[in-house]
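DEPOSITED CHAIN:
***
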Amino acid sequence: MKEFIIKRLVVCLALLVFTSGITFFLLELAPGDPALMMLGQDATQEGLTALRREMGLDQPLLSRYATFLGDLFQGDMGVSYQTHRPVSQEIAATFPATLELSVASMVIAIIIGVPVGITCAIRQYSLTDRVVRFAVLIAVSLPVFWLGLMIIYLFSIVLGWFPSFGRGGLRHLVLPAVTMSCYSLAIIVRMTRSSMLEVLRCDYITATRAKGIHEFYVIYKHALRNALVPVITIIGLQFGVLLGGAVITETIFAWPGLGRLMVQAIFARDYPIIRGGVLMISACSILITLFVDIICSYINPSLKPVEKS
């Protein structure tokens, strides 16, 4: 297992380097001049030239990437073009809000999604199963921005139950967390239902039932353990999606997280912030995937790496 983890960490590092390269070169190919955005349309050519030299934009592209990569390995993500603060400080100030929102959304999705999926599998083709599958189809199809606006209109404007923007107590967290959780909840319900149905059709479940064991133990002790492996995998993937997809939700609800910071940086051509945000989200997603693999190997020992003789 230690060798497996070390190999995966090396792969994770390589993926981060690859992600940094893709992000860097795509941003450099994007239209717009950061120096012009900072100085405005009335800037003189001399001022633009001096600022580009100060920002290192007058250097060749490969030279800039080599400098960026070298600084990155030393823990330096650069300095924001707007605030002139280190990117690491900007991310440290906003990422906890994004993490809080993503964790709350995933908790909602798991608490509701897994039991509902198990219920639908046990009562396949029942009215409950049909209604839930129809609701899942709607939840997957709804755009997040539209759903967020409708939730704000109903629960904030019409009913006045929750605030519609900002970060504060638990009441501020409810609407954005519910909005973000809908898609992941639907995916978890689908995966849990299909995984449970597949396991319940296995021969060992039939044999367990033939022994006269109570149905509760058949479902939750024997079937659920094996059915959880793909469910946990999809939960890990969805958590990474939530971290990256928080951009839209944070913008709608004015949630002061990393996603909203990146949107502001995109409009301002603040490339260091964009690069740092992408790398932070990528690193979290990769580490979550590694963590999920380790958990699945303990739930199902057959998934553990086999030692070579």
About this structure: The mean pLDDT is 82.
